[in-house]
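Closing statement on the tryptophan sub-project.
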Amino acid sequence: MNRIFSGVQPTGNLHLGNYLGAIRNWVRLQEQYDCIYCVVDLHAITAPQDPDELRANTREVTAGLLAAGIDPANNIVFNQSRVSGHAELAWIFNCVARLGWLNRMTQFKEKAGKHRDNATVGLYAYPTLMAADILLYKATHVPVGEDQKQHLELTRDIAQAFNSMFKTELFPMPEPLILGAAARVMSLRDGSKKMSKSDGSDYSRINMTDDADAIALKVRKARTDSEPLPGSPDGLEGRTEAANLLGIYGALADKTVAQVCEEFAGEPFSVFKLQLVDLAVSVLAPIGKEMKRLCDDPNYVDQVLSDGAERATEIATPILSEVKKLAGLL
Ligand code: TRP
């Protein structure tokens, strides 16, 4: 049976980049797969967190997933720390994975920077916890962005090492699912920077909670250049802001950039932006509204998470028992 697992960090300020890059794909996958979607609060604490903020962000991200259309009745939505099997299996994997494997992880190198000795053990072991997330449910497919592919390869290495260490075929080798043209959404103020929750200017991003007026204002103020729109993607070379806006339009309209270029060939940005405003508002404003409603109803969100955790535990328990038995844990 095919089973999807994916995780998202509980960060505040979910924006268009999160929506088009990950969340929207998750919504679409639920048509074809049994999906388990996890808000990874244990991963979040590999960096220092304010406890109240962490709680709020866990609820906010959950609200974003639900508002975007993930159905928590037919899928499982929960937060990682509620299912203790993640931490238990991660420990066992810490005793399977090799220092050399973790030393190669580029994300750790980037995050730890020059102060390696000062990094927490948790940050170092981040990938073994991610392997545990996936394998605790014997997930077969994992939607991930480019930046997480190396962690997924490590997950396969760990699965293989465990299987051979204990002469079993318990764990499947999970496959990455890279969906469509990965929509890489850039800042509306600077087409060379990724859209980011931590950009100082709120005009650089469209937040998932922005209302119609805010979306329209930000699109209108988005940086462009003075040329008309090109008739094909070739004409976007060196025009990062234009490429970004056309990419956003294409992603929202489910069209290729080439199709969008054809549609607007030779038009000025003023014409294109009116269309982009309409499109962005029609897709995003209802999601933002629902997300706000859910953020005002934390009891409902908590109920979804605890119900999801209960169902996740049901799947995880027999798998974890088997692991413990194989490893000789009485
Ligand atoms: N590391 C992932 C990220 O930062 C989040 C994550 C945690 C995840 N566990 C996972 C993704 C398991 C896929 C599968 O984006």
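The mean pLDDT is 95. With this model delivered, the sub-project is considered complete and its resources will be redirected to Aim 3.
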